[in-house]
Amino acid sequence: MLASFLIGLVGGQRAMTPLAAVSIAAARGELPADNGAPAILAHPLVAGGMLVLAVAEMAGVKQKTAPDRIVPIGLAARFVTSAIAGAGLAPRRQRWIGAGVAGVTAVVASYPGWRARMASMRSYGQTPTGFVEDVAVIASAVAITRGLAKPAAV
Asked: Are 1 and 98 in contact (CB under 8 A)?
């Protein structure tokens, strides 16, 4: 459940990144064999589509017209996408627990992430803080999904 929790933290900052990361990992065969990911996530077109949506979101959050991540539709999107990703990172028999953990974590993590971004924007502006947040989000998502593929220690 740790991976589901961690991907939920990522989802609190960017709605599409968890789903893109898990979909790409599934398409590359990097998820554990007993994962709870829906089979459709492993399709290369789905993985590519999720990546495009994640990149579009990252471009969008740097615009002056971007809504806050804590608006209801933003929270709903974070819950759903993180829940799907969290299910994919959990063992199949616990996928519903993984989904719940990731979805709730994403919603809760949205608030401190939003506050930190608002505070940093006063000093550094919207675009630079968005890029820094993007780097942290991408690095975290990659580390979480790649960490699952590590071979067991002997």
From this structure: yes
pTM: 0.91
Distance CA 75, CA 30 (A): 28
Query: Per-residue pLDDT tens for 17-36?
Result: 999 999 999 999 988 888 88
125 Rama sector, left if φ>0, alpha if ψ -120 to 50, beta otherwise: left
CA–CA gap between residue 67 and residue 74 (Å, rounded): 8
Single-letter code of the amino acid located at 133: E
Whether the Cβ atoms of residue 61 and residue 128 lie closer than 8 Å to each other: no
d(CA 118, CA 125): 9
Rounded (10°) CA dihedral 29, 42, 140, 122: 160
- Give me the sign of the Cα torsion angle 32, 37, 42, 45: negative
